[in-house]
UniProtKB/TrEMBL annotation:
Binding site for substrate: 87-90, 109
Keyword Methyltransferase: yes
Gene3D superfamilies the record matches: Ribonuclease E inhibitor RraA/RraA-like
Keywords: Magnesium, Metal-binding, Methyltransferase, Transferase
Name of this chain's protein: Putative 4-hydroxy-4-methyl-2-oxoglutarate aldolase
Amino acid sequence: MNSLELLREFSTPLISDALDSLGINGGLEGIRPIDINSKIVGPAFTVQFAPVKENQQGNAADYLEEVPPGSVIVLENQGRTDCTVWGDILSKLSLNKKINGTVINGMGRDIAEILSIGYPLFVKGTYMKSGKGRTQMQSTQASVVIGSTEINPGDILVGDASGVISIKKEILNEVVSLCQKIDEMEKIILQECLAGMPLSKSRKKHNYNQYSIIK
């Protein structure tokens, strides 16, 4: 399996532990799935939005044709809670195009319809108001920042019930290797504790709290 396929086997908490060992955050604060059973893995296709200025009509965000199959769409709407930038039509078209999912720093709507088709959507919250006349597309495939994490086009996003995390494509193989080591260590610790060893002793034995040693 390649690194992307291997990532599907790891949870975002495990990936976060691997990034912690490298001194990297990667987590997208406040972003969560509308369906806890959703899982996404794929390269980021970024879209930046900005508020519509006074006396401006705003433009339609026609970017979907640019998105390659297998991508994860990342919509940076500055965490706004007063309007949405995603709904059921975009979800249905994305599903048809085999896009892996969408991550929004902001709101989503048409949630019942999106859940019914099984499209993976990760948001800060839900709200019914359209973005028409309120927000407009500023750019595609440029670096965006969500929380304290910068996401560049092509960076790898992983999302599950615990949230979404971003991995720089340049360190993908290293992160996968660390995930494998941490996963194996945790399995050994669990086996030892189930056999009667105190958790504190097993953690100390394997330097569990010192992630830099894992490297």
